[in-house]
Design a protein that fits this description.
Blueprint: H1 3-13, H2 19-38, H3 43-50, H4 53-71, H5 75-86, H6 91-130, H7 137-179
Helix pairs in contact: 1-2, 1-4, 4-5, 4-7, 5-6, 5-7, 6-7
Length: about 190
């Protein structure tokens, strides 16, 4: 593969990155080709030593997405980071998607339980207005107790959500480093 072909494929694969970052990467690769040609290597040898431009792009996009999650945490950024890391290899489909779905399920279930407990007194009052003949004081007090428990659950879910998010971002970074060729120990 020639330098031009390599750069064209790489640039096409980096469309998901911001233009300034893509430009920096392209300049770095061009410098790598220039240094290689000064050392007497052919363009094909240099391209072969770099590897697949598509794989390089996948690794760079995954790294960018994980860094973006660290800067601005949002559901969209986390999902984009997960898909970028999954795109690094088929094995990541199981290793990344499985824990992500499980943790997302735990978070959603916890928040739904907390919110439903907090809303339970309102539902009891609505039931009283619809069917006043079935009102029991026990139902009202029990729902107030559930509302208190729901507040504790919601507070706990706030901290649990933050901790799970931070842990999952660290897991994504670890996975990206592992896929890129192992972790570098400083």
């Amino acid at each position: 593969m020639t330098k031009k072909q390599f750069l064209t494929k790489l640039n096409a694969s980096l469309k998901k990155l911001p233009p300034e970052e893509r430009q920096d990467i392209m300049q770095d690769i061009e410098e790598y080709f220039a240094i290689g040609s000064e050392e007497g290597k052919s363009e094909e040898q240099i391209a072969t030593s770099l590897g697949s431009p598509e794989q390089i792009a996948k690794e760079l996009v995954a790294t960018h997405r994980v860094e973006k999650v660290e800067e601005t945490t949002s559901t969209g950024n986390i999902i984009r980071a997960v898909w970028a890391v999954i795109g690094l290899g088929f094995f990541n489909l199981v290793i990344v998607l499985g824990p992500f779905v499980a943790l997302a399920g735990v978070i959603i279930a916890g928040w739904l339980m907390g919110v439903s407990f907090v809303v339970s007194p309102i539902l009891v009052l609505i039931n009283v207005f619809i069917h006043p003949e079935v009102f029991e004081l026990f139902d009202l007090f029990f729902s107030i107790g559930l509302a208190g428990i729901g507040l504790f659950i919601a507070i706990g879910m706030f901290f649990a959500t933050r901790a799970i998010k931070n842990g999952f971002v660290r897991y994504l970074k670890y996975n990206v480093g592992l896929v890129k060729g192992g972790l570098k120990h400083a």
